[in-house]
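Protein Record: Sequence and Backbone Structure Tokens
======================================================
Tokens: labelled as protein backbone structure tokens, with as many entries as the chain has residues.
Question of interest: how does this chain fold, as expressed in backbone structure tokens?

___
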Amino acid sequence: MIDAGLSVRAFFTTRDGGTSGPPYASLNVATHVGDDPGAVARNRAIVEDAAGAPVTYLVAEHGIRVHTVRAAGEEVPPADVVLTTVPGLAVAAIGADCVPLLLHDGVTGAVAAAHVGRAGLYAGAVDAAVAALLDLRHEKASLATLCASVGPAICGSCYEVPAAMRDEVATRHPSALTTTRWGTPGLDIPRAVEARLDELGVGQILRRGGCTYEDEQFFSHRRDGTTGRQCGVIVCGVSLRGPDSSAP
């Protein structure tokens, strides 16, 4: 587990420490990739134990839909942003190259997890996540109290795309435009997510984890094809770095 660095309990998983066999070895948390359901259930139990809370996972559709979680175990429709204001509940974003983004609002205590891939970035998933948190506020307050952690994802040196696709995304997110290690057109989605969060005025932006393609401690769909998924998890109401608490 990689500490997300936020003031509430939040972390990113790696592929280590689970029960799944190849090609999903070993901490695969996704139910849609062909892994044994029993192994996935055991892996999710491991993640819940680390969170110390029931975890609700989003079901990504590469868009901007937001779902608010109000109770543990509720059915979640397809959405790329899940949030909660209920203390003791956790939300999670699943991915294997796309960006898992975790957000905490110090004003309301609300937390959100977002799945941001190329299509979601272009559609406005980062904006949707931030807007959903701001909509929960009852009075005007600074965005400086919003904190974000950008998790492991494929980097701009490894994410090769057609030139037309790169140029289309760059019309909205110029910081995404890059050239890969092979000298071909590429996109740097993590860098673009960080840039957009900064443009929106988010007070603290952290980057955790490396490139999923380069680092084999992570699942990477682009590198491996059939593989598992890691996740980013954030728990509502469990303070770690306040005046009366300390980091784990």
Q: What stands out?
A: The two ends are 12 Å apart (CA to CA). Residues 242-248 have pLDDT under 50 and may be disordered. The chain has one domain: 7-236.
